[in-house]
């Protein structure tokens, strides 16, 4: 259990290598892995290894440098997997789809070989 008395999040367990995942990038403080239920041809979850922040608003207020690092990892992953073009989505709150309350971003992109996500994909415009 964590210091808050809660079970470690799935993302904490992936970072600790307790749960298998296809890791596509990692730094000392960030881990990125393919989503198990992809919503786009390229769908990568990017998250800090710390579970201190439950959403992006808390992360931005508590450690803007870590948020910057997360964005830098997203950019590097997109450069490798989708010609540098991507959509980065943070869900904040259960009613908008956040199911793991350990801050994370979803990097969504078309295949590097071509294609688009198109207007309206996943309800975004």
What's the layout of helices and strands?
Blueprint: H1 10-15, E1 23-26, E2 30-34, E3 42-48, H2 56-62, H3 64-81, E4 87-89, E5 105-109
Antiparallel strand pairs: 1-2, 2-3, 3-5, 4-5
Helix pairs in contact: 2-3
Short key terms for the protein model shown above:
single chain; 125 residues; alpha+beta; 5-stranded antiparallel beta sheet; 19% strand; disordered C terminus
What does this structure look like?
The structure is a single chain. With 125 residues, the protein is of the alpha+beta class. The protein has 3 helices and 5 strands, in the order H-E-E-E-H-H-E-E. The protein has helices spanning 10-15, 56-62, 64-81; strands at residues 23-26, 30-34, 42-48, 87-89, 105-109. Strands 1-2-3-5-4 form a 5-stranded antiparallel β-sheet, covered by helices on one side. A hairpin with a 7-residue loop joins strand 2 (30-34) and strand 3 (42-48). The protein is globular. The N and C termini lie far apart (40 Å). Residues 119-125 have low confidence and may be disordered.
Total strand count, please? 5
Radius of gyration computed on alpha carbons: 14 Å
Identify low-pLDDT runs.
119-125
The chain-level mean pLDDT equals 89
Briefly characterize the structure.
Helix content is 25%, strand content 19%. By secondary structure, it is an alpha+beta fold.
